[in-house]
Amino acid sequence: MTLPPDYLSNTLQLIFIVSIPQAIIGLWFSFVCLGFFPERFARRIVICGILHAVYIDIPYFLIPPWIHIFNVLLSIYVLISLIFPELKPKIKLLVILFLMLLSTVFEMIYGLIAQFFGGYDTVLNQIVAFKLLLFWPGFAIIALATGIMHWKKIHIAQQIRRFIIHVRSMPYFMLLLLVAVQIFLFMTISSHIFIKPLQLITMQVIVILSIMLFIYMTIKIMRIIASARIEGIYQSQDTYINDLTRMFASIRGQRHDFANHVQVMYSMLALKKYDQLRTYMEEVVKEIQSMNVAVVELPSPALAALVQAKAAIAMEKKIRFDYLVHTASLTFSAVTSIDLVRIIGNLVDNAFDEVSKLPESEREVHLEMYIHNSDLYITVANTGKQLTDEEIEQMFNPGYTTKADGHTGLGLANVLERVHSYNGHVSVDSDIDRGVVFTIRIPNSKLAKSKLA
């Protein structure tokens, strides 16, 4: 094989002037965007960037652009797997995805700039100083922006990372792969325009594949959105049914306990132990009063069943669960019963999980619903530690959870999504005295429409 003219000089310049800085900054940018950059990664990022730049640039002038791009993707995945073995496959794909996006942006920008200087071949034959002035200012800007993001803890893709990690559905994973393939095709088209033209038939095939893939991805995204909404409804129904099942089991247990209590009291009466009988009856009455589950008075069957179920769960977990549902709030028709159950159920479940970490004497959860200025307000308060501003900011992110026992971290995210669908607002207050208080405000959209009419 005959090497192109100035192959060694051009390859070395490409490695040290362009590829190594671009690879290192691109990896750093990807890690910071995804929300993790432990100090132990810094040295490995540099090693990975150098090895990748050297490997892909040695054959760069000897192979077609599409083979080069395929080699870039395959080699970076292998290197990341070897150098960062602790990363999960999904995280590796996300890192590569962001690296590809940044590389594509670099390629397009510098391809456009190269056109002003006579094209790619003209820039390739320029002196080293010219290439440094052309490429390094852009690298410096991206590096500075990444450094500020790292310092200020601005992680623009952290929510995506958490969502991808916790999602077990295959369609989401396939969609991620399709996005990577689409970017690969786009990089090939960009290379054809700005660097090395491809054969006409090859370019036509790539364009057709890119268009077909874009249409398929659009349909796939629409299906995922539709299935996610249906899945959310099914999850609410499953939660509703499970709560009812636990409520009925609790009632059966209470009936069995009550039969035992009657037998004990009858025996004490027969033995004429009146003082002990009085003490025992006072304890039984106190236990019954502590249940606080007189929800049969609520005219909303769905809400009554929900509160009844949560009260049974609270009793089982030794949690003091108080509620106050104003009658006027039950006439609020702007929110469907299913969404009301989803919102209140997730908030109460989250409160139960938090207070379960406390001693039994400190476990308190309070629920209140009322109407103020025609808007529906729902507050759920629980005792516990004071949350930091960062914790409050992150708790509604999909996948964020402080629990390690199989929780997906999607409960509060679902609450936020449902409330926003009604143009509502969610606020969180936390202090040492009150613990954590969630306040939901949902405007009465039907009333607003009637006024406009």
TrEMBL record:
Gene3D superfamilies, A to Z: 1.10.287.130, Histidine kinase-like ATPase, C-terminal domain (3.30.565.10)
Reactions mediated catalytically: ATP + protein L-histidine = ADP + protein N-phospho-L-histidine
PROSITE patterns xref list: HIS_KIN
Alphabetized GO MF terms: protein histidine kinase activity
Enzyme class, broadest EC rank: transferase
Record-listed E.C. numbers: 2.7.13.3
Recorded superkingdom: Bacteria
Transmembrane segments: 12-37, 44-63, 69-87, 94-113, 133-151, 172-195, 201-219
Keyword annotations: ATP-binding, Kinase, Membrane, Nucleotide-binding, Transferase, Transmembrane, Transmembrane helix, Two-component regulatory system
SMART domains noted in UniProt: HATPase_c (SM00387)
Pfam family, one: SPOB_a
Domain Histidine kinase: 340-446
Name this polypeptide is given: histidine kinase
Source lineage: Bacteria, Bacillati, Bacillota, Bacilli, Bacillales
